[in-house]
Design a protein that fits this description.
The complex is a heterodimer of chains A (261) and B (292). Chain A has 261 residues and is an all-alpha fold. Chain A has 12 helices and no strands. Chain A is 82% helix and 0% strand. Helix content of chain B is 32%, strand content 21%. In chain B, the strands form 2 sheets. Chain B has a 6-stranded mixed β-sheet with strand order 6-7-8-3-9-10, with helices on both faces. The chains are: A mainly alpha (261), B alpha/beta (292). Chain B: It holds the Pfam family ABC_tran.
Chain lengths: 261, 292
């Protein structure tokens, strides 16, 4: 399957989805269109609203807030995850002592923390950053921990025989190995940072995409909710593309799944 | 059965005492000497497995010693003891007359499995070997380039390990080991995973590099032909557990040698027959007694 053919098929699936949505909400197939539209809106309405929202400079302010929260949550979460991942992987006693607490903290559904964070950090961006942090931290932490623990013993012994000090090993062996594992979870981590931001906004805020969606929902404006979701989706795709670019840049040494270079 | 060491095929005599089989002198001329080495592991369930026992083996500076033995005879274990990666439960390891503690800093190790850092290019993999010695980066890179040239990889310096073939990766590993100029080379079936032709090419490359700057070599292999073609001396280990040395044969073939040609010589055949008669017993024992 060549690239163009694939792209055409992908677009076709999208169009088919919109077409089905359109037919079911505009024509009386399932019931009175007016009633159906209250629950599902129509694709044309949603696109029109999305377009209008995007043309309105106000939305960029909301996007900017959400972006800030996402990036901050990711940066802090990743930094914390890397630091503790390294610390625990290199210190077996520490890891053993804290093991049950980490498992317990990770098992807790983080959404329940949102009201607490709102109480502690206010309704501004920091309560959302905190929520995103708790999500990102554990993903990065577990991956870095695994990455450091599962360094190939042969590569490690070889580096030792080359006379590397503990610092050299950290820099040339443990760190790149941990990074690989971290990057393998990068998409998930960034996704969770965004989840933290949007859910936080949804539960209590005065700005951001989550706030926009919540605002529309509170007045039963289904078109507004769908338009917000569409904008969010485009936003996620853009972020994910940037992450992929960074990943490809930093992991050039990794064998490609498709073929060899 | 234990053959006497021979000095044929070497250019000039070497200073220092030649010792056969483990009677160490006050001043030991050996580059690395294993003395009464015993190595044991605790298996799952608390059982104790004795891999090797009572091993006496010395390698002189400039001497190429091959260690052969059936699978599971603890060949790699011996090498790891000489490298300091493994602490023997009994006996001692001496490196140039001083007892070894910790890693053997005067040795280079060529592993059987891929040991290159996959996140570094061939050039960086070789250059990083100079970092512990405090060589400035620009000089390290220049020297790494030179070494990659010597192993025939000038055109591949910027490649990552996964972009290289198995043989090319071994060449990089060889350059990585040799650039530090270690006095002792420890090799654990380094060409084992390669195909037959590549093995011969790599063997010749190794001999060529070694001839230019002779180091003490301890080369572990299960391939007797390879052992005879490369080494000055072939040491035969018995089948495990508790493997011992059961044969020590000098290889008086002239150098320089061509690995693919030397196999055709009658002297090679005679040696092969002699050593194989010793090794064969152990190989059949390994298959009869062990789970191999």
């Amino acid at each position: 399957m060549n690239r163009l053919g694939l792209l055409a098929l992908q677009i076709l699936v999208g169009l088919a989805g919109f077409a089905i949505w359109h037919v079911l909400t505009v024509y009386p197939v399932l019931g009175a269109p007016k009633q159906i539209q209250f629950f599902f809106s129509t694709p044309v309405e949603v696109l029109k609203r999305t377009w209008a929202e995007m043309a309105n400079p106000e939305i960029w302010g909301h996007l900017w807030i959400t972006l800030q929260e996402t990036v901050l949550a990711f940066v802090f979460g990743a930094a914390g995850g890397i630091a503790f991942g390294f610390l625990f992987a290199r210190n077996a006693l520490l890891a053993a002592v804290f093991d049950p607490y980490i498992k317990a903290a990770n098992a807790l559904p983080r959404v329940v923390l949102a009201p607490i964070f709102a109480l502690w950090f206010g309704l501004g961006i920091w309560s959302k950053v905190a929520l995103g942090f708790t999500l990102v931290f554990f993903i990065v932490f577990f991956n870095v921990y695994q990455g450091v623990r599962e360094v190939s013993p042969v590569v490690l012994n070889n580096a030792r025989m080359l006379g590397m000090s503990e610092r050299g090993l950290l820099r040339h062996v443990y760190w790149p190995s941990a990074l690989t594992w971290m990057f393998s979870s990068l998409h998930t981590a960034v996704g969770f940072a965004l989840v933290g931001a949007v859910v936080g906004e949804y539960l209590g805020s005065s700005a951001g995409l989550g706030y926009k969606i919540h605002e529309a929902e509170s007045v039963f404006d289904v078109t507004g909710v769908f338009a917000g979701m569409l904008i969010l989706t485009v936003f996620v795709i853009v972020i994910d593309t940037v992450v992929t670019l960074i990943e490809n840049r930093l992991l050039v040494w990794r064998p490609q799944a498709g073929g060899q270079g | 059965m234990v053959g006497q060491r021979a000095a044929e095929g070497r250019k000039g005599g070497r200073a220092g005492m030649r010792v056969v089989g483990g009677t160490a002198l006050a001043h030991d001329a050996a580059a690395v000497r294993l003395q009464g080495i015993g190595i044991a592991f605790t298996l799952k369930g608390g059982k104790r497995y004795v891999a090797v026992e009572g091993i006496d083996l010395g390698v002189m500076p400039g001497e190429f010693v091959a260690v052969v033995g059936p699978t599971g005879s603890g060949k790699s274990t011996l090498l790891n003891a000489a490298a300091g990666l493994l602490k023997p439960v009994s006996g001692s390891v001496t490196v140039f007359s001083s007892a070894l503690s910790g890693l053997n800093a005067r040795a280079g190790y060529l592993f059987q499995a891929d040991a290159l850092m996959p996140w570094k290019t061939a050039l960086d993999n070789v250059a990083v070997a100079l970092e512990p010695q405090g060589v400035p980066r620009s000089e390290a890179l220049a020297r790494a380039r030179d070494w990659l040239g010597r192993v025939g990889l000038s055109a591949f310096v910027e490649r990552y390990p996964h972009m290289l073939s198995g043989g090319q990766r071994k060449r990089v590993a060889l350059a990585q080991m040799l650039i530090r100029d270690p006095e002792i080379l420890l090799m654990d079936e380094p060409f084992g995973p390669l195909d037959a032709q590549t093995r011969q090419i790599m063997g010749n490359l190794l001999l060529e590099l070694w001839a230019a700057n002779r180091k003490a070599v301890m080369f572990v292999t299960h391939d007797l032909e390879e052992a005879i073609a490369l080494a000055d001396r072939v040491v035969v280990l018995s089948a495990g557990p508790a493997a011992r040395i059961v044969g020590d044969f000098p290889v008086p073939l002239a150098r320089p040698r061509d690995i693919s040609e030397i196999r055709l010589e009658p002297q090679f055949h005679a040696l092969y027959k002699e050593i194989w008669s010793c090794l064969r017993v152990e190989v059949s024992r390994a298959y009869a007694g062990g789970p191999a």
